[in-house]
Amino acid sequence: MARSTLSIKRRALAAVAGGASLAIVLTACSGSGDGGDAGDTEAATADCSAYEEYGDLSGKTVSVYTTIVDTEAEQQQESYKPFEDCTGATIKYEGSKEFEAQLPIRIQSGSAPDIAYIPQPGFLKSLVQDYPDAILPVGDAASANVDEFYTESWRDYGTVDGTLYATPLGANVKSFVWYSPAMFEDAGYEIPTTWDELIALSDQIVEDNPDGEIKPWCAGIGSGEATGWPATDWMEDVVLRTAGPEVYDQWVNHEIPFNDPQIADALATVGTVLKNDDYVNGGIGDVSSIATTEFTEGGLPILDGLCYMHRQASFYQANWPEGTTVAEDGDVFAFYFPGNDTEAKPVLGGGEFVVSFADRPEVQAFQAFLTSPEWSNAKATATPQGWISANKELDKSLLQSPIDQLSYGLLTDDSYVFRFDGSDMMPAAVGAGSFWTEMTEWIASDKSDTAVLDAIEASWPTS
Hints:
Elements: H1 4-11, H2 23-30, H3 38-48, E1 61-66, H4 70-79, H5 81-87, E2 90-95, H6 99-108, E3 115-118, H7 121-130, H8 140-149, H9 152-157, E4 159-160, E5 163-164, E6 167-173, E7 176-179, H10 181-187, H11 195-208, E8 215-217, H12 229-242, H13 245-252, H14 261-274, H15 289-292, E9 307-311, E10 333-336, E11 346-356, H16 361-370, H17 373-382, H18 402-412, E12 417-420, H19 428-444, H20 449-459
Parallel strand pairs: 1-2, 1-3, 8-9, 11-12
Antiparallel strand pairs: 3-11, 4-5, 6-11, 7-9, 7-10
Family: Belongs to the bacterial solute-binding protein 1 family.
InterPro entries: Bact_solute-bd_prot1, SBP
Signal peptide: 1-28
């Protein structure tokens, strides 16, 4: 089944245009140009030294096929320039909104790209299962980089049946609550550090606003054909907090049923917020309005002082209106969605993975480059906001957005336990199907917890 709707979920918020130029780096890497002196040559050698391991790839071309289009595609291509200038290779880039549907067709027809960016581990597993001889195991250089620069969980998400087939590319963090620092300060509220404190804060906001015009929470789960995915993110985040990472893994892998009592407890916990008329939906309507509100608009009432909190991912930063300052002392910012206690620190997130369909030296070199700090730094330089890597050697100072810096800290802090978005790892019939639609019905029609979980369990493929 094509999973193009997952691209809607993953990239529904595009990064804003623009970005710092890589001109200085590129000039140094090229080591060419009229009027260059010995000092310029020495600088070029130094700047290109990290690329010497890839060898001379002059005249070689690597084709890259991805879901990434528009402004972000331009930023991607800009980030490749140091590799191209220092090795002599040419990267032929193609982005498509029909990626998930077209990639299998290209594989079947024998016209697979050299490199593809896979937007979720579930799609990776299906490709490996359906085309076992097409996707190649990761080469030694890229594999060594994954071990050196990434946590073990990122290797695990690129592994199928014990073989590493995909290397990490970009990442995002979903365990955030957006808020107005000024509203919190004016009301004397502190950022909660546990789930109980979060609920106590919500109750305090209700008490302090007895007319009900201002609510603790605002939300929206509308997203066209992908309507419902923000509610599944809520569910996944809460499963991590109420049941723990091990049970979360069992649930995602269907080692326990979708209607297991531990999962039912998590859904009930989500309901204490999203189905609580006292808590939602500030500035928008009642509980049912969550289902008809586009997720891109779900947090905007914060700017009007009509709600205090909105749970949404790091990439939501791109949705605030032009002129909104996103910073700890700005118009809006975000805090970590807390766990049961300060010791339990689960983080829900997502990202993309790189696979190869050719073992030519230039292809293996480019995949290794994409796992390196040099690429992460080049991409951070080219991207004003909305992109991070889980590469532990990324220069954090190059991240131009405070939210991106905060996200990177969570991804690379060993005290936080990262888990990939569950619906992106489930079979498409569930993760991009019944999970979305049933959570929508749970909100829109007040469908019962039991009926929702039973329906999703019944939809799980038997093979």
